[in-house]
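User: Some background: our group keeps a shared notebook of sequences we're curious about, and every so often someone picks one and asks for a predicted structure to add to the entry. Today it's my turn. The entry only has the sequence so far, pasted here. Could you supply the structure so I can complete it?
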Amino acid sequence: MGYNFAFEVDKTARQTPDKTAVYCVREYGEIEQLSYDELRRRSNQLARALMTNGIHKGSRVLVLLPKGMEPYIVYLALLKTGATVMPGSEMLRSSDIRYRVHHAGATAVIAHHTLTGEVDDSRVDCPTLTHFYSVGSDVRGWTTLASLVRDVSDADLSMETEDSDIAFLSYTSGTTGAPRVSFTATRGRANTSPSLGHTGLTRSRRISLGRPLGLAGRSGCGARSYPSSATVRPRSCTKDVFSRTLTCN
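Assistant: Of course. Here's the predicted structure to add to the notebook entry:
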Protein backbone atom coordinates (compact mmCIF):
# COMPACT_ATOMS: atom_id res chain seq x y z
CA MET A 1 0.00 0.00 0.00
CA GLY A 2 1.28 3.47 -0.86
CA TYR A 3 1.78 6.36 1.53
CA ASN A 4 -1.41 7.94 2.87
CA PHE A 5 -1.06 10.95 5.14
CA ALA A 6 -4.31 10.19 6.97
CA PHE A 7 -3.01 6.82 8.12
CA GLU A 8 0.25 8.45 9.25
CA VAL A 9 -1.84 10.68 11.52
CA ASP A 10 -3.49 7.52 12.86
CA LYS A 11 -0.07 6.09 13.71
CA THR A 12 0.64 9.14 15.84
CA ALA A 13 -2.80 8.79 17.44
CA ARG A 14 -2.01 5.27 18.53
CA GLN A 15 1.36 6.31 19.95
CA THR A 16 0.22 9.51 21.71
CA PRO A 17 -3.60 9.48 21.77
CA ASP A 18 -4.03 12.37 24.20
CA LYS A 19 -1.60 14.71 22.48
CA THR A 20 -3.19 17.85 21.02
CA ALA A 21 -3.49 17.59 17.24
CA VAL A 22 -5.49 20.74 16.47
CA TYR A 23 -5.73 23.91 18.54
CA CYS A 24 -8.14 26.58 17.35
CA VAL A 25 -8.73 30.05 18.75
CA ARG A 26 -11.94 31.52 17.37
CA GLU A 27 -12.48 35.17 16.51
CA TYR A 28 -13.83 36.07 19.96
CA GLY A 29 -11.32 34.02 21.91
CA GLU A 30 -13.15 30.70 22.15
CA ILE A 31 -10.73 27.79 22.20
CA GLU A 32 -11.39 24.41 20.60
CA GLN A 33 -9.03 21.44 20.67
CA LEU A 34 -8.86 17.98 19.17
CA SER A 35 -6.56 15.27 20.43
CA TYR A 36 -4.96 12.89 17.96
CA ASP A 37 -7.25 10.12 19.15
CA GLU A 38 -10.36 12.27 18.68
CA LEU A 39 -9.17 13.20 15.21
CA ARG A 40 -8.55 9.55 14.36
CA ARG A 41 -11.93 8.36 15.62
CA ARG A 42 -13.98 11.18 14.09
CA SER A 43 -12.29 10.89 10.71
CA ASN A 44 -12.75 7.10 10.81
CA GLN A 45 -16.43 7.52 11.54
CA LEU A 46 -16.94 10.01 8.73
CA ALA A 47 -14.92 7.93 6.26
CA ARG A 48 -17.07 4.88 6.97
CA ALA A 49 -20.27 6.89 6.60
CA LEU A 50 -19.15 8.40 3.30
CA MET A 51 -18.12 5.02 1.90
CA THR A 52 -21.49 3.56 2.84
CA ASN A 53 -23.15 6.41 0.95
CA GLY A 54 -21.29 6.15 -2.33
CA ILE A 55 -17.96 7.94 -1.82
CA HIS A 56 -15.15 5.61 -2.86
CA LYS A 57 -11.60 5.51 -4.11
CA GLY A 58 -11.25 7.90 -7.03
CA SER A 59 -14.34 9.97 -6.16
CA ARG A 60 -13.72 13.68 -6.51
CA VAL A 61 -15.26 15.71 -3.72
CA LEU A 62 -15.52 19.48 -3.64
CA VAL A 63 -15.07 20.82 -0.09
CA LEU A 64 -16.39 24.29 0.78
CA LEU A 65 -15.69 24.88 4.45
CA PRO A 66 -14.48 27.93 6.36
CA LYS A 67 -11.31 27.68 8.41
CA GLY A 68 -11.76 25.80 11.66
CA MET A 69 -11.91 22.31 13.11
CA GLU A 70 -14.20 20.66 10.57
CA PRO A 71 -11.86 20.72 7.54
CA TYR A 72 -9.27 18.63 9.39
CA ILE A 73 -11.81 15.88 10.02
CA VAL A 74 -13.30 16.06 6.52
CA TYR A 75 -9.96 16.08 4.68
CA LEU A 76 -8.57 13.14 6.65
CA ALA A 77 -11.81 11.19 6.23
CA LEU A 78 -11.76 11.69 2.47
CA LEU A 79 -8.12 10.63 2.25
CA LYS A 80 -9.04 7.46 4.14
CA THR A 81 -11.71 6.64 1.56
CA GLY A 82 -9.22 7.09 -1.27
CA ALA A 83 -11.21 10.00 -2.67
CA THR A 84 -9.64 13.12 -4.19
CA VAL A 85 -10.14 16.32 -2.19
CA MET A 86 -10.97 19.51 -4.10
CA PRO A 87 -10.48 22.36 -1.59
CA GLY A 88 -12.64 25.39 -2.36
CA SER A 89 -12.63 28.93 -1.05
CA GLU A 90 -15.58 30.45 0.77
CA MET A 91 -15.47 33.13 -1.95
CA LEU A 92 -16.45 30.77 -4.78
CA ARG A 93 -19.56 31.65 -6.71
CA SER A 94 -21.83 29.40 -8.75
CA SER A 95 -19.83 29.93 -11.95
CA ASP A 96 -16.61 28.96 -10.15
CA ILE A 97 -18.26 25.86 -8.74
CA ARG A 98 -19.62 24.82 -12.12
CA TYR A 99 -16.18 25.13 -13.70
CA ARG A 100 -14.50 23.01 -11.05
CA VAL A 101 -17.21 20.34 -11.02
CA HIS A 102 -17.20 20.03 -14.82
CA HIS A 103 -13.42 20.06 -15.09
CA ALA A 104 -12.83 17.42 -12.41
CA GLY A 105 -16.01 15.40 -12.80
CA ALA A 106 -16.83 15.88 -9.13
CA THR A 107 -19.61 13.66 -7.78
CA ALA A 108 -20.01 15.07 -4.27
CA VAL A 109 -19.79 18.31 -2.35
CA ILE A 110 -19.33 18.96 1.35
CA ALA A 111 -20.23 22.54 2.24
CA HIS A 112 -20.87 24.71 5.26
CA HIS A 113 -24.56 25.51 5.56
CA THR A 114 -23.87 29.18 4.76
CA LEU A 115 -22.26 28.21 1.42
CA THR A 116 -24.84 25.78 0.06
CA GLY A 117 -26.76 28.44 -1.87
CA GLU A 118 -24.06 28.87 -4.50
CA VAL A 119 -24.01 25.11 -5.04
CA ASP A 120 -27.79 24.95 -5.32
CA ASP A 121 -27.64 27.63 -8.02
CA SER A 122 -25.34 25.29 -9.97
CA ARG A 123 -27.16 21.99 -9.51
CA VAL A 124 -29.06 21.99 -12.78
CA ASP A 125 -25.82 22.53 -14.69
CA CYS A 126 -23.82 19.90 -12.76
CA PRO A 127 -25.37 16.51 -13.47
CA THR A 128 -22.34 14.63 -12.12
CA LEU A 129 -23.02 15.98 -8.61
CA THR A 130 -25.15 13.40 -6.85
CA HIS A 131 -24.14 13.72 -3.18
CA PHE A 132 -24.72 16.89 -1.17
CA TYR A 133 -23.49 17.06 2.45
CA SER A 134 -23.69 20.07 4.75
CA VAL A 135 -21.89 21.07 7.93
CA GLY A 136 -23.83 23.05 10.51
CA SER A 137 -27.55 23.77 10.31
CA ASP A 138 -30.04 21.72 8.30
CA VAL A 139 -30.46 22.75 4.67
CA ARG A 140 -33.26 21.52 2.44
CA GLY A 141 -31.96 19.02 -0.09
CA TRP A 142 -28.74 18.39 1.82
CA THR A 143 -27.68 15.70 4.30
CA THR A 144 -25.86 16.93 7.39
CA LEU A 145 -22.62 15.19 8.28
CA ALA A 146 -23.88 14.98 11.86
CA SER A 147 -26.81 12.82 10.77
CA LEU A 148 -24.64 10.84 8.37
CA VAL A 149 -22.24 9.65 11.09
CA ARG A 150 -24.91 8.86 13.67
CA ASP A 151 -24.43 5.32 15.03
CA VAL A 152 -21.47 4.69 12.66
CA SER A 153 -18.44 2.83 14.03
CA ASP A 154 -15.24 4.79 14.63
CA ALA A 155 -13.04 1.71 14.31
CA ASP A 156 -9.93 1.90 12.15
CA LEU A 157 -10.30 1.08 8.49
CA SER A 158 -7.89 0.16 5.72
CA MET A 159 -7.98 1.46 2.16
CA GLU A 160 -5.43 0.44 -0.45
CA THR A 161 -3.98 3.62 -1.94
CA GLU A 162 -1.02 4.08 -4.26
CA ASP A 163 1.57 6.84 -4.43
CA SER A 164 0.18 7.74 -7.86
CA ASP A 165 -3.37 8.30 -6.57
CA ILE A 166 -4.44 11.93 -6.62
CA ALA A 167 -5.03 13.23 -3.11
CA PHE A 168 -5.73 16.90 -3.83
CA LEU A 169 -6.84 18.96 -6.83
CA SER A 170 -6.45 22.65 -6.07
CA TYR A 171 -7.51 25.41 -8.44
CA THR A 172 -6.25 28.95 -8.80
CA SER A 173 -8.73 31.78 -8.38
CA GLY A 174 -8.93 32.38 -12.13
CA THR A 175 -8.76 36.16 -11.76
CA THR A 176 -6.63 36.57 -14.90
CA GLY A 177 -8.16 33.71 -16.92
CA ALA A 178 -9.56 30.24 -16.53
CA PRO A 179 -8.61 28.59 -13.22
CA ARG A 180 -5.63 26.28 -13.43
CA VAL A 181 -5.07 23.01 -11.64
CA SER A 182 -2.23 20.55 -11.36
CA PHE A 183 -1.67 17.17 -9.80
CA THR A 184 1.44 15.39 -8.66
CA ALA A 185 2.22 12.03 -10.19
CA THR A 186 4.10 9.08 -8.70
CA ARG A 187 6.71 10.04 -6.08
CA GLY A 188 5.87 13.72 -6.17
CA ARG A 189 6.67 14.58 -9.80
CA ALA A 190 4.41 17.39 -10.94
CA ASN A 191 2.42 17.09 -14.16
CA THR A 192 1.37 20.34 -15.74
CA SER A 193 -0.13 21.52 -19.01
CA PRO A 194 -1.79 24.73 -20.22
CA SER A 195 -5.06 23.50 -18.73
CA LEU A 196 -3.60 21.55 -15.82
CA GLY A 197 -1.17 23.50 -13.80
CA HIS A 198 -1.24 24.57 -10.12
CA THR A 199 -1.24 22.73 -6.84
CA GLY A 200 -2.48 19.22 -6.43
CA LEU A 201 -0.72 16.54 -4.54
CA THR A 202 -0.55 12.82 -4.36
CA ARG A 203 -0.59 11.08 -1.01
CA SER A 204 3.18 10.63 -1.14
CA ARG A 205 4.79 14.08 -1.03
CA ARG A 206 3.30 17.06 0.73
CA ILE A 207 5.08 19.30 3.23
CA SER A 208 3.11 21.87 5.16
CA LEU A 209 4.77 25.18 5.93
CA GLY A 210 3.50 25.52 9.48
CA ARG A 211 -0.14 24.87 8.54
CA PRO A 212 -1.07 21.21 8.03
CA LEU A 213 -3.13 20.58 4.92
CA GLY A 214 -3.34 24.33 4.36
CA LEU A 215 -6.13 24.57 6.89
CA ALA A 216 -4.95 26.99 9.57
CA GLY A 217 -7.69 29.43 10.38
CA ARG A 218 -7.69 33.19 10.35
CA SER A 219 -8.16 33.20 14.10
CA GLY A 220 -5.35 30.78 14.83
CA CYS A 221 -6.47 27.23 14.05
CA GLY A 222 -3.62 24.86 13.41
CA ALA A 223 -1.81 21.70 14.33
CA ARG A 224 0.38 21.59 17.38
CA SER A 225 2.60 18.79 16.12
CA TYR A 226 3.16 16.52 13.16
CA PRO A 227 3.75 12.82 12.57
CA SER A 228 7.48 12.34 12.10
CA SER A 229 6.87 10.22 9.01
CA ALA A 230 5.10 13.14 7.36
CA THR A 231 8.41 14.99 7.04
CA VAL A 232 10.67 14.15 4.12
CA ARG A 233 14.05 15.48 3.05
CA PRO A 234 13.53 16.16 -0.65
CA ARG A 235 16.16 16.94 -3.25
CA SER A 236 14.25 19.80 -4.88
CA CYS A 237 11.04 21.62 -4.06
CA THR A 238 8.68 24.15 -5.57
CA LYS A 239 6.97 26.50 -3.16
CA ASP A 240 3.28 27.28 -3.62
CA VAL A 241 2.47 30.57 -1.91
CA PHE A 242 -1.28 30.00 -2.16
CA SER A 243 -1.56 26.84 -0.12
CA ARG A 244 1.73 27.30 1.80
CA THR A 245 3.04 23.93 0.64
CA LEU A 246 6.04 22.52 -1.14
CA THR A 247 5.85 20.02 -3.98
CA CYS A 248 9.02 17.97 -3.97
CA ASN A 249 10.85 15.33 -5.97
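Suggested note for the entry: The first strand starts at residue 20 and ends at 25. Confidence is low (pLDDT under 50) at residues 184-220, 223-249.
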